[in-house]
Amino acid sequence: MPPAALAVHLSIGQAYAWSVFKPPLESALGLSGTQSALPFQLGIVMLGLSAAFGGTLVERRGPRWAMTVALICFSSGFLLSALGAATEQYWLIVFGYGFVGGIGLGIGYISPVSTLIKWFPDRPGMATGIAIMGFGGGALIASPWSAQMLESFGTDNVGIAYAFLVHGLTYAVFMMLGVLLVRVPPSVRPKADAPAVTAGPQVSARSAVRTPQFWLLWIVLCMNVTAGIGILEKAAPMITDFFADSSAPVSATAAAGFVALLSAANMAGRIGWSTTSDLIGRKNIYRVYLGVGALMYALIWSLGDSSKPLFVLAALVILSFYGGGFATVPAYLKDLFGTYQVGAIHGRLLTAWSTAGVLGPLIVNWVADRQEEAGKHGPSLYGVSLVVMIGLLAVGFVANELVRPVHPRHHEPAADAPVPTSEEAADDRREQHESA
Amino acid sequence: MTGESSTSPPEPSRRALIAFSWVWVGLPLAYGLYELVRKATQLFTG
C-alpha cells in the first residue's frame, strides 16, 4: 500500500514545480508573471474544492476509483496543456493544468489517506506521513526533470508542448502502479491484542463539519501553513537581505542552496514528525509545531544578522513543522472522528490549505513591500512579518488547546456501523475464495 | 507489512512485487534527493 500511495503523491507533487515552466511560457507566449502563475493558482484552488466536494464520493467508491480519476485528470491536464502550447492558446493551458489537472490533485491527494489509516490503525501518523511526504518529494523530482526536458526540447511553444506531452504520458504510466496495487484491508473483526479498525468514535463527514473540533483543526492547519509559507515564499531574498550588512553576505547561489535545504526539511518533517505523533500524541505534536515554531520565529527576530547557522537552523525547524502539520492532520482527524469517513473529512479540511495558500503570500509580500517603502533594510525589513507569524502561530496554539473529544451526539449509531466500500466488499469476497 | 498480514511471510512472487513497487517509487525519489543535495551544498560552498 505505501508504494501505491507514493506513486500517486510523487506524481501530483509536481504541482509545486510549476515555476520551472513560468519563464519559458512568459517568453514563448508573451505573458506576464501574474498570468503565467494562473495555472498553478487555479490548480491549488481546484485541489481544495475537489478534495472538499469529492471526499464523500472517494469514501463511497474506494481508493482505486479515486486514483483512476486522479490519473485521468492529472494526465489529461498535461495533454490539454500540450495542445494549448502547440496552438498558442494559453486559456487551454490554464483550463487543462489548472482546472482539469487541479481536480486530479485534490482527488489524488486524499485518495490513499483513509485506506492507509485502515491498513495501519495503530500507526496512522507514520502511514499518512509516508504518503504526504511523497507530495513534497514530487516537486524535488519534477523540478530538475522538467528543467532538463525544457533544455532538450527547447523553450519555444513547440518545446513546451513536447515537455507537457511527455509529462502527461509519463505520469499516467507512473500513477498506474498506484491504481493496480491499491487495496483496502480485509474487514477484520477486532482482535484482543490489536486496535480495531473501527474502534472509537465514528463520525460522518456531514456531522464532523458541524463540530467545533473540525473548525478548531481548520484554524490550526490554516495558521501552521500560513506561518510556514511566511518563510517559504521569501526564503531566498530573506536570507540575502538578512545578512546583506553582515561580514559574510549570502550570494544568490548560496540562497538557492538554502531554499533546497528548506525543501528537504519540509519533506523530512512530513515523515519524521508525523511518525513521532504516534508516540507522543497528536495534540502534543501540534503544541510543538505551533509553540516551538513561534519560539523559532522569535529567535530569528531577536538574533538579527548575528548568527547565520542559528538563522538556518531555526528556518529548517519551522519548515519541518510546516511539513509535519500537513502529514499529521489526517491522523488527528482519525483520533477525533474515527476512520468511518476520515478521507472525506480530510478533504473538507484542505480548504484551510487553499485559504492559507492565498493568505500567507499576501501577508508576507504586503508587509515586505510596506517595509521597503519605509526605507528599512537588513533584518528590520522582516521584523513585522516575523511578529505577524508569531501571532498566527499563537492563534493556532490556542485553537489546538481548545480541541476536546467529539460529543457522543455526533457519533454514528452502532446500527449504522461503517459499511465497506465496493472495493472492500470485492476484496473480502476474493479473500474468502482464496482461502476456500 | 501490516497488522493483519504480518502473521505469515509473503510468497516469493508477492515479495518480488513488493520489491519492484518500492524500486518503482524509490528510483525517482532518489534522483530528486540527489539533485536536492547537490543544490543544498551550494549554501555552504556558494
Explain the overall architecture.
Chain A is mainly alpha-helical. Chain A has helices spanning 2-12, 22-29, 33-36, 38-61, 63-86, 90-110, 113-119, 124-153, 157-181, 205-208, 212-232, 235-242, 252-280, 282-303, 308-337, 342-349, 351-373, 383-401, 422-435. In chain A, 76% of the residues lie in helices and 0% in strands. The model of chain A is unreliable at 188-197 and 428-436 (pLDDT under 50). Chain A has 2 domains: 2-181, Growth Hormone, Chain: A, CATH 1.20.1250; 205-405, MFS general substrate transporter like domains (Growth Hormone, Chain: A, Up-down Bundle). Chain A contains 19 helices and no strands. The relative contact order of chain A is 0.15. The radius of gyration of chain A is 22 Å and the shape is globular. Chain B has 46 residues and is mainly α. The model of chain B is unreliable at 1-6 (pLDDT under 50). The A-B interface holds A 1, 3-4, 6-7, 10, 119-122, 134, 137, 140-145, 174, 177, 181, 185-186, 188, 194, 251-258, 260-261, 263-264, 312 and B 1-4, 17-18, 21-22, 24-25, 28-29, 31-33, 35-37, 39-46.
A few lines on this structure:
The complex is a heterodimer of chains A (436) and B (46). Helices cover 76% and strands 0% of the residues of chain A.
How are the SSEs placed, and which strands pair?
The complex is a heterodimer of chains A (436) and B (46).
Chain A: H1 2-12, H2 22-29, H3 33-36, H4 38-61, H5 63-86, H6 90-110, H7 113-119, H8 124-153, H9 157-181, H10 205-208, H11 212-232, H12 235-242, H13 252-280, H14 282-303, H15 308-337, H16 342-349, H17 351-373, H18 383-401, H19 422-435
Chain B: H1 12-40, H2 42-45
Radius of gyration of chain A: 22 Å
| Total strand segments of chain B | 0
> Mind telling me the CATH class of the largest domain in chain A?
Mainly Alpha
Q: What's the SSE pattern of chain B?
A: HH
**What distance lies between the first and last C-alpha atoms of chain B, to the nearest angstrom?**
43 Å
Radius of gyration of chain B: 17 Å
